[in-house]
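I am still getting used to backbone structure tokens and would like to learn alongside you. To get us started, please write out a protein record for me. Once you have written the record down, we can walk along the chain together.
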Amino acid sequence: MLTVDPLRRRAELSGDALALVDTATGRDLSYAVLDDRIARLAAHLRVAAGVDRGDRIAVLSHNGHELIELLFACARIGALLVPLNWRLAPTELIEIVEDCEPTVLVADDANAAPATAVAAATGVELHLALRGAQIDGAVDYEQALAAAGPQADPHWPAETDAWYLLYTSGTTGRPKGVIQTPRMALANLVNIGVPIDLTSADVTCNVLPMFHTGGINLYTLPTLLVGGTALVPRTFDPAEVLGLLEARTTAFFGVPAVYQLLADQPGFDAADLSGVRSWASGGAPLPVPLIHRYAERGITIRQGFGMTETGPTVFLIEEAAALSKAGSVGRPQLLAEVRIVDVDGRDVPEGEAGELLVRGPGVTPGYWQRPEATAAALEPDGWLHTDDVARRDADGHYTIVDRWKDMYISGGENVFPAEVERVLDEHPQVAESAVVGVPDDRWGEVGKAVIVPHREGELDVDDLLGHCRARLAGYKVPRHVELTDELPRNAAGKILKRELAATGTGDSA
């Protein structure tokens, strides 16, 4: 497994090869230069900041080569990096910082103000300032590296040691720090790198924030492990990314919102994207109309599935089936074992929905300082409860149906809101929808649909429900419809369904 420092080894094997490109500055870093910068950063953190093995370093920053340098510098010290979600409010950040108790905090120019507020509230030292940030008492990052010598006797964590923490979005409660290990990184390399044929000749473009598993692992870290080149924009700008895809990218991963925003760009239809040989998506179901929109341009998007807790890659559909089985996430990859079980933990028959369980070297060992949450999620034999509902078809392809906790029971029948939402979203007057179960005296629970119309006041509820009745079993058709200007979301953009369930039941169908 991953028992040696892969960046140090890459520098030895292919030091002159281009490792990272920071597209905001145009800065190119070879593997040799990247390795030297990591060594100097590790020395500075160890000597000047007093960071020791087992300590945590929190970073509040937009994407850039510095986050990769921090990631590997932490490994060489034996510390844990904690990338913080810069979309969160200071009060939310304070909660995470108090949970992980970092020794130092690092921030960039775009996040200097919230980082300063967090440091003041928690007492953590704001030690390094990235990209010229003006922060009282903080050391300039580039000056710190220039003044430091390479670290002597660098450490590399054991394959199951904690390397970094990624905090979940907390849609069902307070955020949990998911432990990430070197073994998870190598398992993900196999699970995503093999099916997309990732090699040292590839150039990938990372558009996801590095406080997210996708931002690190799809595909920046796998690219560095194989010796390729990773392009790293600061944030996702559709026009910039479309240009990068046209100019130099060979393999690309995006979430559905990214694909939609790219397709909405004025230059999308004219862009020459023939150099991108591999396209993949995850994070949420990719709408089938969007799959076909890209297919019209000769682009096949392969849908996959994974979680922060699984490193992340579990599934990726093969290119040959991406259109014929649109909506499926494919089959489990090489180092992922899966089961689908009922509420009693028994395997369900083919075609039936149940909870997806995952086992393998890509699964996290647990949550940071949360033994009860770890025990609830992980069985003693290694099976992880994903809280996702899935089905397996006769060809061995899997479809993610919904979140297990979102399911409600109406008249003894299981209803998965995501199935209803897909039908609602097909209606021409619906911009966005969310469905939750609400109490009902007769049926136990019934569905409530909360709808954002395309245009205010232009939704015919009777027509919408007729649209549903023609496509869904009667017990799945929402009994209540509520119109709203926007759906409540957390800082990661996920819909807060518990808030929808707490509101009134709206108009009855």
About this structure: The radius of gyration is 23 Å.
